[in-house]
Amino acid sequence: MTAPALAHPAVPVAPVQLHQVSRHYGTGEARVQALADVSVTFPAGSWTAVMGPSGSGKSTLLHCAAGLDRVTSGRVLLAGQDVTHATDATLTGLRRRAVGFVFQNFNLIGALTAEQNVALPLKLAGARPSRQVVRAALAEVGLADRARHRPRELSGGQQQRVAIARAMATRPSVLFADEPTGALDTGSARTVLRLLRRMVDTAGQTVVMVTHDPVAAASADAVVFLSDGRIADRLARPSAAQVAERLTRLEG
Ligand SMILES: Nc1ncnc2c1ncn2[C@@H]1O[C@H](COP(=O)(O)OP(=O)(O)OP(=O)(O)O)[C@@H](O)[C@H]1O
Ligand SMILES: [Mg+2]
Which CATH fold would you assign to the domain 4-251? Predict the structure, then answer.
């Protein structure tokens, strides 16, 4: 018999759940409803792509789910914790322990080497990572030989892999990525997508990824489509052609 899910609190059944989440920005005439009554669950050990036209609320969804932004109403559960009304200190702690974030433009610190960049979140979380641990993280993304290089000495795809190693260093229960392949050429993008797939398949990582690229979305297990801040559709294991077709109808 398999053990009940509750026996493993470190691996919750669904590390991210949004219940009827709305997010407004601004007031009066400047008021924008970035998310409107969004309910979505990102299951453990799965990879979900979030797609939709520009301004449809994808980044807002990611930021609210990751505890980087506050919701106007609704509830967010992250790594088994209700973070809706959490204090800033609680949120910061949770982000450092439970969440990894990868950005389109990598956001590496230019003055630090690859290994120093990877070690940073561990240090912020209060750990004193050994060089061995950091080198192992770089080896996992195929960059063992680039540990002493600074970001400007690396290609875009290599920088994004360092950013993924950094995001994964604290073994977060969920990895959020906002257009992680957006700035990459086709070959580098494919390398990053393969890496994410391996993390999901072999380490049971949960990944939530915003992308504009139907090929990238088709690498995921499911695709959630946003339109005007609402969930418009969800497809399981779609082909790139199906994703493109659905997206065209949303943008039309
Ligand atoms: N800090 C903010 N202040 C005011 N409005 C905002 C803010 N952040 C986002 N918005 C608005 O909320 C809506 C959703 O923005 P969001 O960044 O989530 O879109 P997106 O789907 O990620 O778009 P893109 O594909 O262009 O990145 C947009 O209309 C945007 O202008
Ligand atoms: Mg965005």
Answer: Rossmann fold (3.40.50)
Q: How far is the CA of 163 from the centre of ligand 1 (A)?
A: 23
All residues at 6 or more sequence positions from 191 whose CB lies less than 8 Å from its CB, including other chains: 142, 157, 161
Delimit the domains of the chain by residue range: 4-251
Give the whole-angstrom CA distance, residue 166 versus residue 137.
Answer: 8
CB 12 near ligand 1, within 6 Å: no
Q: Is 205 in the pocket of ligand 1 (CB under 6 A)?
A: no
Rounded distance between C-alpha atoms, residue 180 and residue 193, angstroms? 9
Nearest CA to ligand 1 atom 25: 54
pLDDT in tens, 90-101: 998 888 888 999
pTM: 0.92
Measuring CA to CA, which residue among 249, 175, 167 is closest to residue 214? 249
Using CA positions, which residue lies closest to atom 28 of ligand 1? 55
9-45 pLDDT, tens per residue?
Answer: 444 457 899 999 999 999 999 999 999 999 999 999 9
